[in-house]
Amino acid sequence: MKKIYLANPRGFCAGVDRAIEIVELSLKRYGAPIYVRHEIVHSRHVVDSLRKRGAVFVEELDEVPDGALVIFSAHGVAQQVWEDAQRRSLKIIDATCPLVIKVHNEVHRDYNNNYELILIGHADHPEVVGTLGQVPDKFHLVSSVKDVEKLEVANKEHLSYVTQTTLSVDECSEIVEALNRRFPGIKGPHQEDICYATQNRQNAVKELAKFVDLILVIGSPNSSNSNRLRELAERFAVPAYLIDSYEDIQLEWLKDVDAIGVTAGASAPEILVSQVVAYLKGVGAQEVEELTVVEEDIEFLLPRELMMPGEKRNQRALV
Predict the structure, then answer these.
(1) In angstroms, rounded to a whole number, what is the distance separating the alpha carbons of residues 141 and 132?
(2) Distance linking the first and last C-alpha atoms of the chain
(3) Cβ partners under 8 Å of residue 86, min gap 6
(4) For the chain, which terminus, N or C, has the lower number of CB atoms within 10 Å?
(5) Per-residue CA distances from 173 to 29, 103, 168, 293 (Å)
């Protein structure tokens, strides 16, 4: 192995940065413990670090004491979760990614205009659960072209769709094409709901695939966008592995590999990338090169509860 190519962009996106900062600032301002419903982001490294500092991660609100502070994760939550938290007088700080909020807003708008709704996404993913829970009915989930073919709707002339933000662009486009074939008048979002970070990281993997014999994707097994990066690399005929850290690398993967690509899902911190690079250098890599497809400069506002008086930050993404 002679060379490591590092995909850029990689790792944390603005939504993940914001979510982690929300937990860190909450710990400083309110003190431990604070409760976080679901993993704040899908990263074992991040979750373990915050847990050591006093964050308590729970799956359901009944694990949170009455009146306590609870943070909703970057994936978003159903309306019923909000109502349950308010009923119990929990102090709520919302760390939902603004791009997920954009999808929620589209759902509410179309539902109020009497559309029957379709969500393109993966069942049981927390973002999908939260989005489906925005409205009480008239909502269908499709995860494949086959699902579209089997879909039964009440009104073919008044349909709209939205997508999970962390889907593969290619996978999403195939399902959208199937929806348009079956329901020619279906209404889609004004902009693609695939988030900028997902698309940028996928574009970087496509570029990596031109130069390398193997791609390592750093991310937790439950990270949807990380899994999509691995799948995309394999679609371009490059072997790829999803790893939580350098400790998951198997030396047999590196046999006969001349150039190796490294990227990271949107929830993976840069320290894990540095550790993987150091490991690969230790087993023979001689050169490291950044492969940049686009520079990211997106930032999202913090919730009002955590902003200092007079603080201003740019928010360049549509919400």
Answers:
(1) 8
(2) 44
(3) 92
(4) C
(5) 44, 17, 9, 21
CA dist 30 and 139 (Å) reads: 38
Express each pLDDT in 29-69 by its tens digit.
999 999 999 999 989 999 999 999 999 999 999 999 999 99
pLDDT at residue 1 in the model: 73
Which 3 state secondary structure label does DSSP give 119?
A: strand
* Residues of the chain below pLDDT 70: 191-192, 308-319
pLDDT at 273: 97
The residue among 14, 140, 119, 19 whose CA lies nearest residue 73 is 19
Q: Is 127 a catalytic residue?
A: yes
Separation of alpha carbons 141 and 122, rounded Å: 8
Q: Which of 39, 106, 116, 127 is catalytic?
A: 127
pTM: 0.88
Residues in Cβ contact with 182 at an 8 Å cutoff, skipping those fewer than 6 apart: 148, 149, 151
Which amino acid is residue 60, in one-letter code?
E
Please state, in angstroms and rounded to a whole number, the distance separating the CA atoms of residues 25 and 27.
Answer: 5
CA 257 → CA 8, 98, 249, 304, distances in Å?
21, 40, 13, 50
DSSP per residue over 210-260, as a string?
Answer: TT-SEEEEES-TT-HHHHHHHHHHHHTT--EEEESSGGG--GGGGTT-SEE
Is 211:289 a contact under the CB 8 Å cutoff? no
Longest dimension (CA), the chain: 61
pLDDT, averaged across the chain:
92
Look at residues 40, 17, 42 and name the one whose alpha carbon lies nearest to residue 93.
Answer: 40
The tokens describing 214, both together, are 């193997």
Structure confidence at residue 318 (pLDDT): 33
> Phi, psi (5° rounding) for residue 220?
-75, 155
